[in-house]
Structure formats: C-alpha cells, structure tokens
C-alpha cells in the first residue's frame, strides 16, 4: 500500500518577500509512523519537516524532524505550520495551543500577516570560555572574535549556546563542522547561536548565525527557538527592556536574509519570549510513501 502525501514548502521569517527559512508542513491522519516521518524528512532534505495532526477547535499537535532525527521543537517550522493552517482554511485567525514534545506553546495566527509564538520562560545553564568556543571555528585566533560577554546555554524550548561576537566578525566565521557536531552531541546542545549587536541607528538589534551540524543542518538562515533564547539573554546581560520589541537579522551570509521579531511577555512571575514573523508558501510537492518499507517512491 502506498500513502499519498502533500508536502507544503513554506518560507518562514521572510524579509520583504525574500529570504526566509524553508520548512515542509505535512498534515496526516495518523497513518504515518515515526519511520515514515523520518524517511520523508530525509527525502525532502530541509532543515525541518513538521507533521501536523489532531487539529481541533483551539489546538493542534506537531512533530518536527530534521533529515537525521526527530527534535522536540522548531521555531521556523512553527511559523510555517501556522501559515499553512490559516491560509488553507484549516483554522481561522486567532489564538491556538501547539502541542509538541517540548511542551505546549501559545501561537497567534493572523491570515496573510504574522504568526507569533510564545516560548517557555528561559532556563540559563552552563557557561563556556572563549578558548573553548574557538575550537569550534576555523582561523579564529584562539577566541579573539568573542566579546567579553557571557557564553551560555539558554533554553526556551531547546538548549541553544549563545555566543556574543565582536562587531564586524560575524560574517568571517567558518564553522568547523566536525568539531562542532561532536561538541553539541557531547554537551546535549541544539545549536551554536552566534550574534553581534548593532548600533542604535540600525533597524536590527542584532545580526545572528546558527549552526547545528550534528542534526544535519550546517547552518540555518532563520532560527525561532534560538531567537527566543537570545532575547532572554539580552534582557539579562545587555539591559534590553522587557517590553522592548526588537528585530533580529539572520541568514545574510547564506544569501537568505530573514527577519525575526521578538519581545518578552510577562506570564505570572516569568518573562516568556515571543517570537514571530511572516511566512510565504513556495510550492506543494506530492509524494508517495510505501506503508511497509517507509520508503518514499516517485
């Protein structure tokens, strides 16, 4: 038996109709096993493929897969899912709860406009030295590219390592993918998220880059989960005001500039990152998946 699949390819965090990070969104009715989902994600080859099911009045369930493994949460694929659901008429504009393996996330969806998601209150974890981080990049001069700021793991859905970079250095970084993959696996990290702060006259509060080679993603052009960790980090260490709305620019070095909007929302006694942006449907790919072998066939 062959299962027909429609994979909707959607760019998340687009900037002036360009750039953005592509994710695949697939709606299924429970016929797909984990093996099917992994085979599809590998076949499509995007950084993440999101599988949506159990769509109800005010909530829906999503699982996320990279080409190599399932992950608990993905920010840009969350935007892609929201865009798909409202643009296809599966849901109306409004507020929803997205159920994931990382927990439940509040998502606000507006047709033909923004999708905003509230992440968990930040957990600040282990710190690292500049010399340690220097081993993850090539030709970096023993950490001289890192500022004197704190290099720390921050988790708002996934554990991302935030690395502050000196102004003008971001575009010159080249990841040592082998060393970085081993480091991330050893320390149970989702990504290495490096950033440089901009001057007050820039429309972007920070420029960022994100690396997850251990998940089959050498570099990503827009990362919602790490952007949530970043705004929490900036609130703690860079005096970013809790009510301040900022914009991050990512993907410039990849030729895919992507715009990520961020602010903090007070929930009870906690500050929770709210991340969002716009998305754009690119194409729909039709696939056939063999039920028994979990193989994608033409």
Summarize the structure.
By secondary structure, the chain is an alpha+beta fold. The protein has five helices and 18 strands. The model has no long low-confidence stretch (mean pLDDT 93).
Low-pLDDT stretches:
none
> Can you identify the CATH superfamily of the largest domain?
Diaminopimelate Epimerase, Chain A, domain 1
CATH topology of the largest domain: Diaminopimelate Epimerase, Chain A, domain 1
For the sheet with most strands, the description reads: 8 strands, mixed, barrel
* Estimated radius of gyration: 19 Å
Q: Write down the overall mean pLDDT.
A: 93
SS field, number of helical segments: 5
Which strand order does the major sheet show? 1-2-3-4-6-7-8-17
Strand content: 35-45%
Count of folded domains: 2
Cα shape: globular
Structural class, by secondary structure, is: alpha+beta
Q: What is the name of the CATH class of the largest domain? A: Alpha Beta
Active site: 48
Protein name: Isomerase YddE
Keywords: Isomerase
GO molecular function: isomerase activity
Characteristics of this structure?
alpha+beta; globular; Diaminopimelate Epimerase, Chain A, domain 1; 42% strand; eight-stranded mixed barrel; 18% helix; 298 residues; 2 domains
Structural commentary:
The chain has 298 residues and is α+β, with helices and mostly antiparallel strands. The chain contains five helices and 18 strands. It folds into two domains: 2-120 and 279-297, Roll (Diaminopimelate Epimerase, Chain A, domain 1), CATH 3.10.310; 123-276, Diaminopimelate Epimerase, Chain A, domain 1. Strands 1-2-3-4-6-7-8-17 form an eight-stranded mixed barrel. A hairpin with an 8-residue loop joins β1 and β2. It comes from Pseudoalteromonas holothuriae. It is an enzyme of class 5 (isomerase). This is Isomerase YddE. Keywords: Isomerase.
């Amino acid at each position: 038996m062959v299962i027909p699949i429609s994979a909707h390819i959607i760019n998340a965090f687009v900037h002036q109709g360009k750039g953005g990070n592509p994710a695949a969104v697939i709606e299924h009715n429970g016929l797909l096993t984990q093996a099917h989902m992994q085979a599809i994600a590998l076949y499509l080859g995007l950084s993440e493929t999101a599988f949506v099911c159990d769509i109800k009045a005010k909530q829906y369930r999503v699982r996320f897969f990279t080409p190599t493994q399932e992950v608990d949460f993905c920010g840009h694929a969350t935007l892609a899912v929201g865009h798909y659901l409202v643009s296809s008429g599966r849901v109306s504009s409004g507020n929803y709860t997205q159920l994931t393996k990382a927990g439940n996330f509040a998502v606000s969806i507006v047709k033909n406009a923004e999708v905003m998601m509230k992440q968990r209150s930040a957990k600040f974890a282990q710190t690292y030295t500049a010399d340690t981080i220097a081993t993850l990049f090539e030709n970096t001069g023993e950490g001289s590219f890192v500022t004197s700021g704190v290099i720390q793991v921050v988790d708002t859905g996934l554990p991302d390592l935030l690395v502050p970079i000196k102004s003008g250095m971001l575009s010159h970084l080249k990841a040592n993918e082998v060393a970085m993959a081993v480091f991330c696996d050893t320390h149970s990290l989702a990504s290495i998220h490096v950033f440089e702060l901009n001057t007050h006259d820039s429309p972007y509060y920070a420029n960022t880059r994100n690396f997850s080679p251990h998940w089959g993603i050498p570099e990503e052009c827009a990362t919602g989960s790490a952007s949530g960790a970043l705004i929490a980090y900036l609130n703690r260490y860079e005096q970013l005001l809790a009510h301040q709305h900022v914009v991050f620019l990512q993907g410039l070095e990849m030729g895919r500039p992507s715009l990520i909007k961020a602010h903090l929302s007070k929930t009870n006694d906690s500050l929770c990152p709210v991340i969002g942006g716009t998305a754009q449907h690119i194409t729909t790919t039709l696939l056939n998946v063999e039920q028994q072998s979990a193989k994608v066939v033409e």
